[in-house]
Amino acid sequence: MHINELFSLKGKCAIVIGGAGKIGLPMSEALLEAGATVYIASRSKENYKPIIEKFKQKGLDAKGITLDQSNEKSVNKSIKIIKDDGHSPDILINCGYSRPMKNFFHDSVENWDKSMEVNARGIFITCRAFGNEMALSRGGSIINISSIYGMVAPNMNIYENLDFETEPDYPFIKGGIISFSKYLSSYYAKSNVRVNCVSPGGFFNNQPKLFIDNYTSKTLSGRMANHDDMKGVAVFLASEASSYITGSIITVDGGFTTI
What we know:
By secondary structure, the chain is α/β, with parallel strands linked by helices.
């Protein structure tokens, strides 16, 4: 097969949960540019409407869908809408994430529970619902977004003299996503549904200079991730170019986890 065909997503249908976010947006854009029909899923239309408008200005025809990943009825309804549109889900990117623990390690048990209700519950509901749908079609690709902090402990020195740090639920969930994705890759192998993880490093988001300097000093690349860094890995894992890859974790971290 020609290399352009291997990476092409023409005729494929993708759902990007959290597709209006800083990680999901470039991934949505990349899938659209590769030829896929892309549904940007969010709990609120207000989140995806401006993104869809920006894509249209670029000649990219994205679709929006309202979905609560922690609600099984909402997820099943979204699948029905997609099928009623004449599509069958081929690609799922799971990058929706709720971060209720604003007081970090000192936050309440109730906010820990809220995180589990949305994040842990959500990854189970969406992967099972879309995975089962893909299994009926005998093929598909699920891409779950983990983090470097699902692989290694946060380096707390990075946050010294700053008023924020990494929440305790974040590595708990992100580490679990990796293990759960490996489980799913085994479970769905018989149905030719591949399941892989992407573990991004820190994404530039106008953070304080002190944090940026602290963080980039820990990377081999000497910088934080940007919009375009998320695009290639999304198309690769969604396409036939990665047809022999499942149960894997691809780090996009500028070498942060290497040091």
